[in-house]
């Protein structure tokens, strides 16, 4: 679910402007999972544009507090959400921790890095939601450390049905600054893509794991 429509449209436009989101239906990308995709999202680029990273920080800060109340701690999911998560925590005057994909093999063998007390209320910040598996892995690590998870806030989601099912099963409320539907609507309106390309992008979103542009 998006925080609000105005933020969703503005965020989508900013991500397109800096090429954090690339749309290329005719020459799809290949994800690490092997999926063919007409879209590629790299929200790490936001950190290189001060005005845009400040916008994202401010939208997160006010909407997190509005939706979840002010938590005790902000947690970022490594590695993509560490930078923006720290900015949000600083803006809100809160402690920050981050969560590794898995526990370290040496030293203290931490998966959650930073100071976290059992029972503290935590909002998790994420950069991108695809299936939700890695994001929810971070949630489980925080829960294992004794955190009370108030919810998750992400910059962008592809809006896959499997992600919705995964978050529902984990009993986690997810809110995003923008999403796939708002992105496509804005991309057509601003002539980033044609209506024909929009149709291709919508078809992919329904069956991303089996979609192949060459079969169309």
TrEMBL record:
Species the sequence originates in: Flavobacterium hiemivividum
Physiological role: Catalyzes the transfer of a ribosyl phosphate group from 5-phosphoribose 1-diphosphate to orotate, leading to the formation of orotidine monophosphate (OMP).
UniProt cross-references to NCBIfam families, sorted A to Z: pyrE
Pathway given in the UniProt record: Pyrimidine metabolism; UMP biosynthesis via de novo pathway; UMP from orotate: step 1/2
Family the entry assigns: Belongs to the purine/pyrimidine phosphoribosyltransferase family. PyrE subfamily.
The protein's assembly and partners: Homodimer.
Domain Phosphoribosyltransferase: 58-156
Protein name: Orotate phosphoribosyltransferase
Residues noted as binding orotate in the record, renumbered to the chain: 130
Annotated catalysed reactions: orotidine 5'-phosphate + diphosphate = orotate + 5-phospho-alpha-D-ribose 1-diphosphate
């Amino acid at each position: 679910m998006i925080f609000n429509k105005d933020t969703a449209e503005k965020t989508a436009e900013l991500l397109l402007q800096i090429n954090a989101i690339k749309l290329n239906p005719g020459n799809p990308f290949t994800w690490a999972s092997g999926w063919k995709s007409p879209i590629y999202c790299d929200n790490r680029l936001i950190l290189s544009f001060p005005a845009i990273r400040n916008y994202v920080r401010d939208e997160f800060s006010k909407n997190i507090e509005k939706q979840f109340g002010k938590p005790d701690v902000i947690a970022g999911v490594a590695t993509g959400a560490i930078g923006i998560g720290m900015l949000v925590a600083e803006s809100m005057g809160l402690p920050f921790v981050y969560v590794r994909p898995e526990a370290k093999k040496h030293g203290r063998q931490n998966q959650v890095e930073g100071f976290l007390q059992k029972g503290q209320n935590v909002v998790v910040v994420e950069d991108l939601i695809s299936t939700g598996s890695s994001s929810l892995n971070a949630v489980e690590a925080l829960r294992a450390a004794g955190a009370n998870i108030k919810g998750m806030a992400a910059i962008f989601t592809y809006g896959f049905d499997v992600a919705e099912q995964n978050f529902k099963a984990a009993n986690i409320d997810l809110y995003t600054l923008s999403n796939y539907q708002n992105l496509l609507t804005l991309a057509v309106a601003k002539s980033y893509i044609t209506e024909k390309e929009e149709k291709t992008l919508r078809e992919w979103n329904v069956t991303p794991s089996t979609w192949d542009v060459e079969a169309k």
